[in-house]
Amino acid sequence: MTTTATTTTISQHDFYGDDDGDSETSISVSVIENMKEEYGLFVWPCSVILAEYVWQQRSRFRGSTILELGAGTSLPGLVAAKVGANVTLTDDSSKAEVLENMTRVCELNNLNCNVMGLTWGVWDATIFDLRPNIILGADVLYDSSAFDDLFATVSFLLQNSPDAVFITTYHNRSGHHLIEFLMVKWGLKCVKLVDGFSFLPSRKASLLSGNIQLVEIVLSCGKSAA
Asked: With helix as H, strand as E and coil as C, how does 39-101 read?
């Protein structure tokens, strides 16, 4: 990890295929982190796990249109871009420092991602033009007061793109029942639920802790927004 300022570091995240070290089956992503800033400028375990999932499912992501919500340091979205996805990175419109950092991270990795402010539950004009195939969100289920705004936003995006899927990783702090309630409330359903550590390489798993789940969520019916 390279220190660039008193509290700012650049962390490197490596992803390997079947042949470790083979340039065709491995990538490396550099992320600018600020240890003194708010949550948006630190790579949390949920981001590491979701990024690994994107990497292992890279054939699914290649050529897809990806939207990352609450991206922060953007590791999952950056991995998606590295494997050939068309990526839009978003975070709260009021978090100018986080959005600026996202732009710098894209430049650092020579990636041409779209960076934009998107506040959950706020219907700015830009959200109506978003048509992702896959929506990503790492550790976006940490503040229960924001859950309804998050799920309202996800539901809206999925209604605009009925074949899309929302993939999120979260700390299972209070059980899956709250998320199940919100999915029913917003017309969504779970199509996949796995232990986040079940597919994580041991070299990464040994550095992380917690009960982290990965869930894939889709519309409960094929009804699209008018």
From this structure: HHHCCCHHHHHHHHHHHHCHHHHCCCEEEECCCCCCHHHHHHHHCCCEEEEEECCCCHHHHHH
